[in-house]
Input
Amino acid sequence: MAVGRIDIYTHYLMISQMDGWLKPLVFRFCDSLVQFGFKRQGKKVQKIKKCVFAASTMDRKELRLNISMKDSFMRYLAEMGYSLNRFTIVDHSHQQPVKVELPLKGDKSPRDYQENILDYIVNDDEPNKVVTIQTGRGKTFIALTAASRIGYRTFICVLGRFMDKWIEDVESTYNLEPGDLLVIDSKKALLNAIQLGQEGKLICKVIICTTTTLQNYIKTYEAQQYIGKPTLLDPSGMYAALGCGFRIIDEIHMFFHVNFKIDLYSNIYKTLGLSATLESDDPFMNRMYNIAYPKSKRYRGLAYKKYIASTALYYQLNLPTKLRWIGPQKTYSHTLFEESILRSVKSTKAYLELIATVVKNSYMNRRKDGHRMLIFASTKEMCRVIAEHLKGLYPTLKISRYVAEDDYEVLMDSDISVSTLGSSGTGVDIPGLTTVLMTSAVGSRQANSQAVGRLRELLQWPDVTPEFIYLVCQDIPKHEEYHQRKFDNFKDKVLSQRSAFSSFKI
Output
């Protein structure tokens, strides 16, 4: 008699029908997939479970693991005394997707180095591929060209704030007819598309869907399974119902846990993950990255192209005891630092003068028509204050704050944009961007790589070297630590690195 059942899909395996002895052992396997964090309660700091990189129904009758864990899970079962012949094992292939034609527009063709990447994506049946090439080398175009060559209805999963950009990219890449592109930004719209697909009435060639929509669909499905009143189609059958055979996931490192969980409900011919930076300072997260996207499946055959000059600009504090930067958990907080600056008129004035000097020397003194600058701060309020100050200095320029609630066109149309890393640190490509000033002090390898990656090679102005400038306060030890991390991180990614010391005190 079987002690359990193992169903194997393209992107995950599901364990179910477990007997009473097996179930606790199976869930014990997941102990290493739990991410912990810390929460402050009064004067005490409590260790808490943040998320689990596995999926189960609330009654724990089913457990889903990433497909790359199949071998390690099977070895674990053997070590626990459960040979595989005691299980019912069912291998599921994906259903045949809908074939479509996605012809590229006449002026669109891959570059030589992109052809190698396309071969890697298209020319085998491996269901999970990842392209982690540097920003500016055409990840989006490569993905859409791969979709054209694979020739199946394509599903593109994106963060909501990048939806408009992807719609524009799809429409500018393909020769589309009305109805060829379907945009899904709600669970209701997804349900309607699934129904049309099941009825054979879905006519689109490309579907763009928000990550949040898929997340909500899965949450609802799991809740329905728990109460025993399922009305939703199992998410793993969704792609078959939609007739999709190729899935593109944009910026896989963002909302990573959500993307990881979506894979645990995916049975589809091929997935392509896109990211410029799939690396973390956290060993646990790097292990999860390698589970979801094993290094053997990542394309790494493209040499890093260096074209950026990086500068660390030092400044000092006038009265260090008057400003704060240590948060309640005894860690550095740049948000707190900015809020502290803004509470002091004198500090705010000096800080804005420092920023204005950088703008003048690094951007205005070499500016040509079409050149743009991006400034990063941590808080919306600091973004607003910096933007308003610069507007007063340069009234003929278009200078804007850009945060989540602002229109994307603001970022694209402004001469100088002031934004946060969360809003503009990933997934945006500002034409003519010559200069980035990072006022925020952050230590994250991923965040810093994404920030410097906003700069592209300036093919229109080959004599102009893009500049990345970041501020370092001499009086804050964490700033020096973060500077060293940037220095080490950037050494293989930029043309040059230097440190400059200003006379500014804030």
Q: What stands out?
A: DSSP finds 17 helices and 21 strands in the chain. The chain has a mean pLDDT of 92. The first helix runs from residue 22 to 28.
